[in-house]
Design brief:
Blueprint: H1 13-16, H2 24-44, H3 49-60, E1 72-76, H4 84-87, E2 93-98, H5 101-110, E3 117-121, E4 135-140, H6 149-162, E5 163-172, H7 179-187, H8 192-195, H9 205-214, E6 217-222, E7 227-232, E8 237-238, H10 240-243, E9 250-252, E10 255-257, H11 259-289, H12 291-306
This protein binds S-adenosylmethionine.
């Protein structure tokens, strides 16, 4: 039987929704429509309000050790505030940004009773609403998988910008190298999705390390479900325990290079460049101090003064 002989289609209206186009306006329309049909099911596929609440508590709890009563928190793609609601008592201010105006509207109504929670309608590709060095902790769960990879990279760069120094970014994406997540990937290979594309992207751990470190992050935790904890440090890189993993090799030229080797090479290159800049600066200073150059400068300044 040919693949195209299967005339299967998803059973529910939510499942049948697809993107009209690849631009971010189409992504917004997709999520607005999802929220109108059923926000709860479109977010966490939860059957009832109670499990929506308990899953929110479970997802918020790992944030507790990373927050203090004075902390400021941001969630990217906050939906109707399933997680925000439970993070609010852990810190001073809680912000959520989402591409869908409808999600934001429903979230504001749902969490009206929590004055420290602020919802924002964002443009879907950056964090222009927020100043540099604003947040202690940024979180993004069940969201990056729905954005184009190029947008995920923009959001990583913007998260780095808006985090305070030493601030933490926690996020998660599905791992295509895990069999159960490959089954989810296979679901979206059905011909139905050719004409009704569902916004869904899968990653390998190595891809995520590449994107996060290129955005400037120090990756300190990364598990098999690609739950990542990354920190804003001056130097990008990975914690030693991650660098040793042999599933994280990346292709450089036509050779697979492990992370430890890659970052050692990069640090060596940086040291070399820093040394070269230092030598050039010293050379320039020697030239500036040379008697001929100093005399020329004095003459030029003198001439400027006597010119009308
Ligand atoms: C599956 S829901 C998860 C909501 C929330 N993170 C949670 O766990 O309860 C995905 C959310 O991401 C939002 N979203 C999708 N693409 C986005 C983008 N490019 N920028 C911001 N939000 C986006 C959707 O509107 C939706 O609210």
């Amino acid at each position: 039987m040919k693949l195209s002989d299967a005339h299967w289609e998803p059973e529910t209206a939510l499942g049948r929704l697809g993107l009209e186009g690849q631009d971010l306006a189409s992504h917004q329309a997709f999520w607005d429509r999802s929220a109108e049909i059923d926000a709860i099911r479109s977010i966490a596929d939860q059957d009832d309000e109670e499990s929506f609440e308990s899953s929110g508590i479970a997802d918020a709890e790992p944030m507790r050790p990373l927050l203090s009563p004075d902390s400021v928190f941001l969630e990217i793609g906050c939906g109707i505030g399933r997680v925000l609601q439970h993070v609010a008592p852990m810190c001073r201010e809680v912000h959520g940004v989402d591409i869908s105006a409808e999600m934001v509207k429903q979230g504001e109504e749902r969490l009206r009773h929590l004055p420290s929670v602020h919802f924002w309608h964002g443009n879907g590709y950056d964090l222009e609403l927020f100043e540099d060095d604003s947040f202690d902790l940024v979180y993004c769960g069940l969201v990056f998988q729905h954005m184009p990879k190029t947008t995920v990279y923009n959001q990583l760069v913007e998260t780095y910008r808006t985090l305070k120094p030493e601030g933490v970014f926690r996020f998660q994406v599905p791992n295509i190298l895990r069999n159960e997540q490959f089954d989810a990937f296979r679901y979206f290979t059905q011909p139905y999705f050719v004409h009704h594309p569902y916004p869904m992207h899968f990653y390998s751990p190595a891809e995520i390390v590449q994107l996060a470190t290129k955005a400037g992050f120090w990756v300190e935790e990364l598990d098999g479900d690609i739950l990542v904890q990354a920190r804003k440090r001056e130097q990008a890189g990975v914690a030693p325990a991650i660098a040793e993993r042999d599933d994280l090799s990346l292709l450089e030229g036509d050779t697979l290079i492990g992370l430890r080797e890659r970052f050692n090479q990069r640090n060596e290159r940086n040291r070399h460049l820093e040394q070269r800049v230092l030598e050039l600066e010293e050379g320039l200073e020697r030239i500036r101090r040379h008697p001929v150059v100093r005399t020329g400068r004095l003459l030029r300044n003198g001439l400027r003064r006597v010119r009308p």
